[in-house]
Design goal:
Elements lengths: L7 H14 L4 H8 L3 H8 L7 H11 L3 H4 L4 H10 L17 H11 L5 H19 L4
Length: 139
């Protein structure tokens, strides 16, 4: 059986963190992305799998490309056969120029094949905390 292309738990954590950082209620965000508060709660808790339209609205609200919510892309699937022999190959990191620096750094850390997913997540959190402290920025 093939692994799902969407990491529901990780996406839910990301949505919840942004919502809490912006001091918004479940209902506020649910209204912005046009879903019920209970649906958003299931997404945040890694229980519900959103449909494609909801994913697109979530990505827009998060301010990140839809591809970032997915583990891979059609391009990386196509290249996996040739790339598996090349240790220097890595999936491209897709981001919007308007994204916050911590989000861009996190995307690059997650794309680094030398880091385990847990290590990339931990380093991203460390960077996020340091960035807030030293830059004086909240996002």
């Amino acid at each position: 059986m093939e692994e799902p292309t969407l990491n529901i738990v990780e996406m839910g954590e990301y949505v919840k963190r942004k919502r809490e950082d912006e001091k918004l209620s479940l209902r506020d965000v649910a209204n912005r992305i046009n879903v019920s508060a209970s649906t958003l709660s299931r997404i945040e808790n890694g229980i519900g799998t959103p449909d494609s339209a909801t994913l697109a609205r979530l990505a827009a609200w998060l301010g990140i490309p839809l591809e970032r919510l997915m583990k891979g892309s059609l391009m990386s699937e196509h290249l996996k056969g040739e790339a598996s022999t090349d240790a220097s190959w890595a999936e491209p990191v897709i981001y919007f120029p308007t994204e916050s620096t911590p989000n861009i750094v996190e995307a690059h850390l997650r794309a680094d094949r030398k880091l385990s997913p847990d290590m990339a997540k931990a380093l991203a959190e460390l960077f996020r905390v340091a960035y807030k402290q030293f830059s004086g920025k909240e996002k």
